[in-house]
Amino acid sequence: MTKREKYVAIMNGELAHEDLVAFCEAEIAALDKKAEKSKERAAAKRAETDELRDVVLDLLTDEFQTRDQIAAQVLGEDGEPLSPNKVGSRLTALVSMNLAEKEKITVEDAEGKKSQKMGYRALR
To answer: How far is CA 106 from CA 10, 112, 113, 115, 117, in A?
Structure first.
């Protein structure tokens, strides 16, 4: 009997109590298994995030740097620099943990134009 057929039988009251209990137990077990896998994936993702956060923290100095400057120093698995967004989220976490501070700084681009950007440095 397929799940669909079992659901129809449940709606119509045609399923014996023992069969209904067995079906519900199997569905609950499947939900528990799915929840456990989800927890494992979340833990792996958190561990990866923590790893990158530690790398970013190690790159912070006593001098203010923009997230673009920091991102250029962090290489991903493919050997390419990480995106400033990924680095930015780690910097935000470090600031909230009081391991880094941020402040608006003036930076000069390649053409000599000055602009205001957020700079980050380590609190040590």
So the answer is: 68, 12, 10, 5, 6
Q: Looking at the chain, which runs of residues are DSSP E strands?
A: 65-66, 100-108, 114-122
**Class in CATH terms, 3-122:** mainly alpha
- Mean pLDDT in residue range 29-35: 95
User: Domains of the chain: which residue ranges?
Assistant: 3-122
SS3 assignment, position 105:
strand
Asked if residue 52 has pLDDT above 70, the reply is yes
Q: Using an 8 Å Cβ cutoff, are 118 and 104 in contact?
A: yes
Mean pLDDT of the chain: 88
The helix, strand and coil proportions of the chain, stated in percent and rounded to the nearest 5, come to 55, 20, 25
In tens, the pLDDT along 55-65 reads: 899 999 999 99
**For residues 46 and 44, what is the distance between their CA atoms, to the nearest angstrom?**
5
